[in-house]
């Protein structure tokens, strides 16, 4: 094949010197200086491919020298294949910034796997001891909270033992701190107690400081939740206790004796394994400010691994949300403009993956894979000093006569016009439970687009306050959420802004007299559209306490429906809610809320609603009795019932067939979540629910829930086989013996007669009772077995 020199009149490649110059049609397009780093390099080298540096520090010094000259070329720092164990974070300051036309690029060599590790390799000589436990000396003064062997995460000695099938915590026990168990611990100092909040609103972590007598421990910590409570009486476990080292893959570090203990699998010699102990909390730090930002840097193709857990440092309250945070991550971005982290992997991290802190503009987090994370994935958090009249606890408020009533932020020290898009995020919150796939607090006009988020202990996307709105949250696929906590949603928000008062009567009076207060913080409208949400343990979309100034449309809600607790100026339209509906809670008299032209499959589940906003009408129902219930409340005058003839419900396409009505408009239901080919091949999809409609009453209908298969008792033969006095109840046909229903005591052949006080005559009654009591983590069921009734408590 011939290429005309007229097309490419000047091409100059000098690979060994690291310089590329490109000219097209006689126009100089600029040269690129390439600086190479290798695990086999030396900082005395020249930084070329043939003579690479050993460290990023040497490469960055070279960049600084290049910046001092005239006609600075574009610069690329290229990591060659290998694992780089860092002894300190790589700091990118304003002085090495690129330009819009020629950003500084830091990347992996094409086709190479490059790992930036915060871990330290341990050179251990193991000796076998008693009871299958081996021991080895570690350098004195070295401590660590997590440990890997041949890239496999090991378990710190704990009670109860680790079980990947159990949530929360992969195992919990009410007697984790019982006097009888504590009495068996000789010296538990340094042990850790992990527990859920009493209301299951996140978690707590405590360090054991010693023993008080023979059977009680002393604790410090518990600052990880901004809604203080006692630890949950059941959902708790302890770790880092020597006496609990009793099963394979567990380890314990005695810091005082500098001895590491480990119980490998039978027949495994740990001397043949490679051990890594995470040490650093942060691997790359973009360090700038609003007056001197670091700008125009792109980081791509790297793998970030093995940062240290930070759960004991999570203590800073975030306004009046339920969160406390620690401003750190494997990547921390502060004082940056027009910087991008693209197509990187964040795996096996102890704390947050990415923390976008305080002043940032035009930062993009794009196309990354984030999984196996101890805390949160992507955090955008501003400075409380930028907030006017801030308060930091739910029950606190600033009196009106002391309140700053100027609209908007006080300073510019917060993220604005930043983006998190096309990221695959799953299996996060492995240690900390008050986390999210994307967390937003004290920020403005963020774009959260096309992310796939699942297997999270709490929300997939969380907006912690109303400051300062303007976000676009769209095309995301968020499911398997609120798996270890409660009273939350796949999307969750709070809006405890300046108008908020913990006394509802006081707040009614304040907002009635001063309605201008409502949007002082939530200045811009946040739009939530074209997402797919699924939460089986809460709401799909949960706008909680005071969340205001939202527009919500074109969302597919697969399980938990949509909740609007007290707040103002929410416009909700053209959403589809499968097997659920609308949950309005304790609305203000003049909320100005609108809920119209949505498809709902239940009557509105209102709680203490006296005033129905600006409009709750024109919604589409699948059943007449649901519409009748709502009309009896004085709403839905123009609501209507149609046959919900969906295009392909088994495959998640809930568009209406042959629909030409202009009030409700079909929207795309097939292209949620990540877009890049690499991430789409890795991403999971939500389970598509079976439709719960009146057809469930028909003979032969079956319903899969949790690990069981259920159907109505419908025939004399089924009544006789169960020994029932009449044809009623729901029969359990199949049951997975590894699931929680079986572990809770249910058995095939059981007939469910009552669920949380709700009488169960048919399958639809059970389905509706489960939806009604979705937040019950230990529901009580009355069953019929062996011709007698029996009550069980389910552990869901």
Question: What would you say this structure looks like, in words?
Answer:
The protein has four domains: 31-117, no CATH class; 121-276, no CATH class; 308-596 and 648-679, no CATH class; 700-791, Pdz3 Domain, CATH 2.30.42.60. 8% of the residues lie in helices and 34% in strands. The chain contains eight helices and 68 strands. The radius of gyration is 29 Å and the shape is globular.
Task: Give the structure's gist in a few sentences.
The chain has about 800 residues and is mainly beta. Helices cover about 10% and strands about 35% of the residues.
Show the helix and strand layout.
Blueprint: E1 10-14, E2 19-24, E3 27-37, H1 56-68, E4 74-79, E5 82-85, E6 90-93, E7 104-108, E8 114-117, E9 119-122, E10 127-128, E11 134-137, E12 148-149, E13 152-153, E14 155-156, E15 158-159, H2 179-182, E16 192-197, E17 203-211, E18 217-221, E19 231-239, E20 250-254, E21 259-263, E22 275-278, E23 284-287, E24 294-295, E25 297-300, E26 302-305, E27 316-317, E28 324-325, E29 331-337, E30 340-342, E31 345-349, E32 354-361, E33 364-366, E34 369-373, E35 378-381, E36 415-416, E37 419-421, E38 424-426, E39 438-441, E40 447-449, E41 452-454, E42 461-463, E43 472-474, E44 477-479, E45 489-493, H3 504-513, E46 526-529, E47 532-533, E48 539-543, E49 550-553, E50 556-557, E51 562-564, E52 570-573, E53 576-577, E54 582-584, E55 594-596, E56 599-600, E57 615-617, E58 620-621, H4 624-631, E59 640-641, E60 646-648, E61 653-656, H5 677-680, E62 702-705, E63 708-712, H6 716-722, E64 730-735, H7 740-743, E65 751-755, E66 758-759, H8 763-772, E67 780-785, E68 788-793
Parallel strand pairs: 3-4, 4-7, 5-8, 6-23, 7-25, 8-26, 14-20, 23-29, 24-29, 25-30, 26-31, 29-32, 30-33, 31-34, 32-35, 32-36, 33-37, 34-38, 35-39, 37-40, 38-41, 39-42, 40-43, 41-44, 42-45, 43-46, 44-47, 45-48, 46-49, 47-50, 48-51, 49-52, 50-53, 51-54, 52-55, 55-57, 56-58, 58-59
Antiparallel strand pairs: 1-2, 2-3, 9-22, 10-11, 11-21, 12-13, 12-22, 15-19, 16-17, 16-19, 17-18, 20-21, 27-28, 60-61, 62-63, 63-64, 64-65, 65-66, 65-67, 67-68
């Amino acid at each position: 094949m011939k290429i005309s020199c007229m097309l490419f009149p000047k091409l100059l490649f000098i690979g060994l010197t690291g310089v590329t110059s490109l000219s097209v049609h006689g126009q100089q397009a600029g040269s690129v200086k390439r600086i190479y780093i290798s695990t086999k390099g030396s900082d005395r080298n020249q930084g070329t491919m043939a003579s690479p540096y050993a460290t990023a520090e040497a490469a960055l010094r070279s960049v600084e020298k290049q910046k001092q000259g005239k006609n600075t070329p574009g610069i690329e720092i290229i990591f060659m294949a290998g694992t780089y164990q860092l002894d300190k974070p790589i700091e990118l300051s304003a002085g090495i910034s690129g330009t819009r036309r020629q950003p500084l690029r830091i990347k992996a060599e094409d086709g190479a796997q490059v790992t930036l590790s915060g871990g330290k390799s341990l050179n251990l000589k193991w000796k076998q001891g008693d009871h299958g436990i081996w021991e080895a000396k570690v350098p004195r003064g070295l401590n660590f909270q997590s440990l890997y062997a041949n890239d496999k995460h090991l378990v710190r000695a704990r009670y109860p033992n680790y079980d990947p099938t159990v949530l929360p915590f992969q195992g919990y026990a009410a007697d984790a701190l019982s006097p009888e168990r504590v009495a068996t611990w000789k010296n538990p100092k340094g042990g850790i107690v992990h527990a859920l909040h009493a209301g299951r609103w996140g978690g707590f972590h405590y360090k054991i400081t010693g023993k008080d007598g023979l059977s009680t421990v002393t604790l410090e910590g518990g600052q990880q939740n901004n809604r203080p409570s006692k630890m949950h009486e059941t959902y708790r476990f302890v770790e880092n206790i020597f006496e609990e080292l009793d099963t394979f893959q567990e380890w314990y570090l005695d810091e005082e004796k500098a001895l590491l203990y480990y119980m490998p699998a039978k027949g495994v010699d740990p001397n043949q394994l490679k051990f890594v102990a995470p040490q650093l909390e942060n691997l790359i730090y973009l360090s700038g400010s609003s007056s001197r930002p670091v700008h125009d840097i792109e980081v791509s193709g790297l793998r970030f691994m093995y940062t240290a857990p930070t759960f004991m440092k999570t203590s800073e309250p975030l306004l009046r949300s339920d969160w406390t945070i620690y401003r750190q991550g494997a990547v921390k971005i502060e004082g940056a403009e027009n910087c991008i982290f693209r197509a990187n992997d964040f795996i096996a991290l102890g704390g947050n993956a990415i923390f976008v802190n305080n002043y940032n503009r035009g930062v993009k987090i794009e196309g990354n894979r984030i999984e196996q994370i101890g805390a949160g994935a992507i955090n955008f958090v501003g400075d409380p000093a930028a907030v006017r009249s801030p308060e930091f606890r739910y029950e606190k408020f600033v009196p009106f006569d002391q309140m700053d009533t100027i609209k908007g932020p006080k300073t510019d020290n917060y993220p604005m016009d930043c983006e998190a898009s096309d990221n695959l995020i799953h299996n996060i919150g492995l240690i900390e439970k008050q986390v999210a796939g994307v967390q937003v607090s004290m920020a403005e006009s963020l774009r959260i687009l096309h992310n796939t988020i699942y297997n999270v202990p709490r929300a997939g996307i969380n907006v912690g306050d109303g400051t300062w709105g303007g976000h676009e949250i769209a095309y995301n696929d968020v499911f398997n959420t609120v798996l270890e906590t409660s009273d939350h949603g796949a999307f969750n928000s709070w809006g405890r802004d300046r108008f908020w008062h913990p006394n509802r009567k006081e707040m009614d009076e304040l907002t009635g007299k001063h309605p201008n207060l409502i949007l002082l913080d939530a200045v811009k409208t946040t739009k939530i559209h074209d997402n797919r949400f699924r939460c089986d343990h809460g709401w799909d979309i949960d706008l909680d306490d005071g969340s205001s100034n939202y527009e919500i449309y074109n969302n597919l809600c697969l399980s938990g429906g949509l909740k609007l607790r007290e707040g103002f100026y929410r416009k909700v339209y053209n959403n589809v809610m499968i097997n659920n509906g609308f949950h309005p809670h304790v609305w203000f008299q003049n909320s100005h809320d609108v809920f119209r032209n949505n498809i709902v499959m239940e009557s509105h589940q209102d709680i203490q609603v006296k005033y129905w906003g600006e409009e709750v009408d024109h919604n589409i129902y699948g059943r007449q009795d649901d519409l009748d219930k709502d009309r009896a409340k004085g709403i839905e005058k123009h609501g209507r019932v149609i046959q919900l003839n969906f295009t392909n419900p088994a495959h998640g396409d809930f568009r209406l067939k042959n629909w030409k009505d202009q009030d409700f408009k079909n929207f795309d239901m097939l292209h949620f979540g990540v877009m890049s080919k690499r991430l789409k091949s890795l991403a999971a999809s939500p389970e598509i629910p079976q439709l719960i409609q009146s057809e469930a009453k028909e003979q032969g209908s079956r319903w899969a829930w949790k690990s069981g298969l259920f159907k109505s008792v419908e025939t004399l033969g089924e009544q006789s086989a169960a020994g029932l006095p009449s044809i009623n109840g729901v029969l359990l046909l199949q049951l997975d013996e590894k699931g929680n229903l079986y572990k809770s005591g249910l058995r095939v052949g059981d007939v469910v007669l009552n669920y949380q006080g709700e009488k169960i005559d048919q399958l639809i009654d059970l389905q509706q009772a489960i939806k009604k009591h979705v937040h019950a983590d230990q529901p009580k069921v009355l069953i019929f077995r062996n011709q007698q009734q029996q009550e069980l408590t389910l552990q869901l």
